C-alpha cells in the first residue's frame, strides 16, 4: 500500500517493521520501488549505452524487446520468504510477485542484431549504435505556390 510521501515510502512497512525482530534485517520486500530500474544513459562517439540497475534480479528474470523503435526492458520475479522458529511456527511469511518495465526510444532503423546486452552484478548494460542525424541543407528555400 503506497501512501503519499508525507508518510514515507510505505506506511504499512514502517508499521509492520515495529513488530518484527531486529535480527531479521531488511529484506527484498522492504526495498523502495523507486530504486528499481534506475537508468544511466551515456553517449559515446558511435554508441549509446544504457546501464539499468536491477538489484535482486537474475538474468532469466529479464526480457528485452524492440518494437517500432522502442526498446523495452521488463524484469519480473517471484519471491517467497518463510522464516520459522525452532518449533516450526511462522514468525514472518511473505510472498512477492511483481514486475517492472521501462521503454526507451532508440530509432526506427535499429534492429535486434544492433543491440548488445550484458548482465553483471545486478546491472544490465545495453549498447547500440546512435541513430544517424539527418543533414539539413540550410541554403534552400521553399517555393510559395499561387
Question: What would you say this structure looks like, in words?
Answer:
With 146 residues, this protein is mainly beta. It contains one helix and seven strands, in the order H-E-E-E-E-E-E-E. The strands form two sheets. A four-stranded antiparallel β-sheet has the order 1-2-7-6, with no helix packed on it.
- Secondary-structure element pattern, one letter each: HEEEEEEE
Question: So what's the overall shape?
Answer: elongated
Overall radius of gyration: 23 Å
Report strand %.
35-45%
Helical content class: under 10%
According to DSSP, the number of beta strands is: 7
Structural class: mainly beta
Count of helical regions: 1
Low-pLDDT segments, ≥5 res: 1-9, 14-32
Strands of the largest sheet, in order across it?
1-2-7-6
Overall pLDDT: 76
**Distance separating the two termini:** 64 Å
The biggest beta sheet, please? 4 strands, antiparallel
Quick structural gist:
With 146 residues, the chain is mainly beta.
Question: Descriptors for this entry?
Answer:
single chain, 146 residues, mainly beta, 3-stranded antiparallel β-sheet, elongated
Amino acid at each position: 500500500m503506497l501512501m503519499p510521501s508525507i508518510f514515507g515510502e510505505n506506511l504499512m512497512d514502517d508499521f509492520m517493521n515495529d513488530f518484527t525482530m531486529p535480527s531479521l534485517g531488511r529484506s527484498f520486500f522492504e526495498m523502495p520501488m523507486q530504486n528499481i530500474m534506475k537508468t544511466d544513459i551515456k553517449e559515446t562517439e558511435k554508441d549509446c549505452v544504457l546501464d539499468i540497475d536491477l538489484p535482486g534480479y537474475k538474468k532469466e528474470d529479464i526480457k528485452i524487446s524492440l518494437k517500432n523503435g522502442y526498446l523495452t526492458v521488463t524484469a519480473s520475479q517471484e519471491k517467497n520468504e518463510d522464516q520459522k522458529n525452532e518449533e516450526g511456527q511462522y514468525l514472518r511469511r511473505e510472498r512477492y510477485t511483481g514486475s517492472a518495465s521501462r521503454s526507451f526510444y532508440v530509432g526506427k532503423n535499429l534492429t535486434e542484431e544492433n543491440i548488445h546486452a550484458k548482465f553483471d552484478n545486478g546491472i544490465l548494460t545495453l549498447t547500440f549504435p546512435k541513430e544517424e542525424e539527418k543533414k539539413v541543407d540550410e541554403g534552400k528555400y521553399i517555393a510559395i505556390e499561387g
